[in-house]
Specification:
Helix content is 28%, strand content 35%. The chain has 134 residues and is an alpha+beta fold. The longest helix has 21 residues.
């Protein structure tokens, strides 16, 4: 059985701003520094990092929750899509994102886990500190 990846991060921005950044192609691209195409509604397909990541948004609760099917080009064709759940909530001085990523193949678990920390949480912290997240 594959263990889920679970991470939480608190950032100095309102949860709605964090949510909107994740689901906006231009803002997502600016955040990660790599091309992203993402829709704001359930059923929308998405790609990030120039197509290295792709999937479909399954559920959106505006400002609060995003659920996506998700996969990497580095996975085997026999690897099923994973499920990503991002929950956004208010905390003192900012917002919190709780991530649960289920079904990531064992051969890429470390890469995906580290990728969230580096390409998303770290990028958000750096851009917020520099006043670059709008």
């Amino acid at each position: 059985m594959r263990r889920p990846i679970q991470q939480s991060v608190t950032l100095k921005a309102a949860p709605r701003k964090l949510f909107d950044t994740f689901l906006d192609s231009k803002k997502h691209t600016a955040l990660t520094g790599a091309p992203a195409k993402i829709g704001k509604k359930a059923g929308a397909v998405f790609s990030a990092f120039g197509g290295q990541l792709s999937g479909r948004t399954l559920l959106v609760v505006p400002g609060r929750l995003i659920v996506q099917s998700w996969r990497s080009t580095g996975w085997e064709t026999s690897d099923p899509d994973s499920i990503l759940i991002l929950e956004f909530s208010k905390t003192k001085g900012g917002g919190r994102i709780d991530l649960v990523h289920v079904g990531v193949p064992q051969h890429d678990r470390r890469g995906v886990s580290n990728g969230w920390k580096h390409y998303y949480w770290g990028a958000w912290q750096r851009r917020l500190a520099a006043g670059q997240v709008r």
